[in-house]
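input
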Amino acid sequence: MFSEDEKNGPDSQLEKWKGVMWGFHDSVDPQNDALVRKSLKVICEAILERSLAGKPELEDLVQRASDGPESNNWSAYSLKCIKTLWEEETEVSKAIVVTLDSDFNF
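output
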């Protein structure tokens, strides 16, 4: 009913994890790898959804800070930095989802 790892308890799983961290093993176990990949994909997809939903508002803020009556160089610069970080976060998330979908072994 229980796997060997479950019978040995959390200490066994911790030792496997330490072995991975020290480079002695490639993974804790296939089930753990699948769960990590699934969790990572959920996180990346949430980032992508947030990005798509918020992009128009962020672009509007950048535009208003740059050209509007309350134009302020510091505000415009700060918002452009945030926009750049957001775009980079989006691109990294897209790349991770593509990698996960291709079953690339990492």
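quick obs: Residues 30-106 form one domain.
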